[in-house]
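Hallway conversation turned thread

IA: we were arguing at lunch whether anyone had actually written out ABC-type antimicrobial peptide transport system, permease component end to end. Turns out nobody had. So, for the record, here is the sequence (793 residues) and right after it the structure tokens. Reply here if something looks off.
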Amino acid sequence: MFGLLHRKLLRELLASGMTVLAIVLVTMVGIACFVAMRSAHRNLSWARDYYYSRGRMADFWISVKKLPRGELARLKDVPGIVEIEPRIRFPVTVDLPDQNKPLAGVAISLPDSFRPTLNQIEILRGGYFTGTQPKEVIVNDVFAEAHGLRVGDKITLNLGRRREDLTIVGTAFSCEFVYPLGPAAIVPDREGFGIFYLKDSFAQDVYDMAGAANELVGRLTPAAREAARTILAELERRIDEYGVISNVPLDEYPSNTFLSQEIEGLRAFAFIIPAVFLIVAGIIVNIVMIRRIEQQRIIIGTLKALGMDDRLIGWHVLEYALAVGALGGILGCGLGQWLANSMTYLYGRFYEFPRLPSRCYPDLHIEAVALAILAAAAGGWQGMRRSLTLEPATAMRPAAPPVGGSVFLERLRFFWQTLTPPWRMVFRYLLRHPFRTVAGLVTGLLATAVMSMILSLTIGIDYLMTFHFQWVYRSDATLVLKNEQNDTVMDEVRQLPGVRWVEPVLAVPVTLRYQGREKLTAVTGLRQDRRLTVPRDRLGHAIAIPPVGFVISRQLAQEFGLAAGDEVEWRPVKGRREWYRSPITSIADDYVGTAVYANIAYLTQVLGEEYPVNRIQISLDRNPQQRLRFFQSLKKLAEVEEVLNHADMKANLENTLLRNIWVILSFEIGFAGSLFFGALLSAGVIAVEERRREFGALYVTGYTPLQIGGLLAREHLVILTLGLIMGLPLGYVLADYVVATYQSDVLRMPLLFPPRVWLLTAFWGTVFAAASHLVVEIMIWRTAWLETVKANE
């Protein structure tokens, strides 16, 4: 008997056709998202943890002006310190023959002969320093590969005030620069930013650091990592006299922050999207199972009358749901693994791991299939219970026809009289089947929420680009000078080819303090009539630079609990290291980094210095040849330490991060669309199967298949419209949750939900709904309606 039931189940699955397809589609996509995002999450997490452990990743970085290495003995007894190492780190510019402009980079010292160190490099090509000559360099492998640099090649670096030709002895990877960011960059620039490792003895000579260092890196005990800020404060106190510029714990180090943000973002997406799909799949299964029980009530009653056990019948009914769920889960695992491989490949394009394998996790696939089966079982549970409560005598009789009567809308005579007969039929059906109508609304609501959330994120990314590169930072290039200069350097820059406008900037590293909380940051001094850096509020309105006081970013204001009108204490890292008090005049919005703006004249007056400049912002001629000449001329300026080309930064952002995000979000928009498609397809197929006699009668009375399909289209339109209206608020909540996972001092996602999101959600929802209705319409055209109205003898 059990084998007969299995054969019956197989026939029913094959006969269900489109109904099974809709459930499998929604389940498959949900499981694919779960497997893809959880697998990518594990791949990134494993790579981070493995290479951090293998490379002995530091727990903190402390930047100082110049610290005698003999002072390290004073630091090693700080509780929680495992080890601490000195090194030399300076920005450099790179002069390559095939490049028309100097490239940015950072030089870091390593021991002359190999020994284990913190942030240990991993040689990929060539070897470590040979010891035969001082002028050797190890280059990060990605930069070397981007420029075709090989072991034995010469490379020219501007180190301080010296221009040196160095021999490449190897290429390497470092856990410290998994996400290597150049100055003011958001994404890595493989061609425009390099990491160069020098012999420690050579670096001491070049940078006048004999017996000294300007950076400390260290590791903490596992228990002390929770109190990293307290330990860093104690370290800073002990070496305060040497001018601490910054201290950064691992969780705020830019490379680690970006990577960890992405990992947490994957975790959030891996929870939200699969949950929505599986809920929708469960709802569809529930509707299908209830309909199936009603169709087979006579069969079930007969089997009970013949003595078949209720548990066997209930299991047979539930097997239908379990089989569909298992099929969707298995197919979803295959699609999900392919997507995980693709996502991991994309991550490998801008995270610099020496290897980033995409692994298959059997336990994850088993968990995914189990979730699919569980969702289907939850949906089929009510159908199984209904089959168990049927009494044989009652079940063997056909079900009583549903009670007719008027619906409440008919009491609204003014409204009801304006409706055409097809619309009256639509509203009567929807209101006489409240469970199915509510189920359709829930699926439409969830599909709308996912679609609007994804579209909100894409608009937020576009807004971030516009806000950062067009509204706030409007210069074409920024020159970072090696030391503070007077006004004469401005005149020199004005004479360069292609320069239309220049503005001075004074960046002063300071310690902010408010109500016992301290943070190392920088105050950016701007002219009051500035054009090229324009702080703005969240609506994009320009904020004036006050004659006295600070304009502070919202991220910092929230971190300190500051508001406009409050006074904050600050102390410059160098010069007269005294505490000053300044009022907060305005709160500025920004999404990259944290900024504090002040009038450059106010800064120099408080600091008691001449009118110094350490950065110059430049607006360039639009003529490409003039721009080319400008960047070529910078190679001859000895005062320039770094060159920031904003066009290159924006192009790199668009060609790496944004392009990859758009690829991923395009898949997710398609997945969200499959919710609309699958939910409405199942509803349409069920309606056609259940209402054959009704539609057949309409056909006999003169309705065409197109008009019959029009009735279903109207029903779907009502459900889709109400689902869109109800789903948009939930979409906002989901977008807010996802954006909250991408909030840090380094990068923040804006939360935007403008009418454009509503319109695009409605557009794509309509497109996918129309596609599902096209399938239903084809079914209607292929149905022999005359056969459905013939009475059985």
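OS: looked through it. Residues 1-58+253-400 form one domain.
IA: good, adding that to the notes. The first strand starts at residue 60 and ends at 68.
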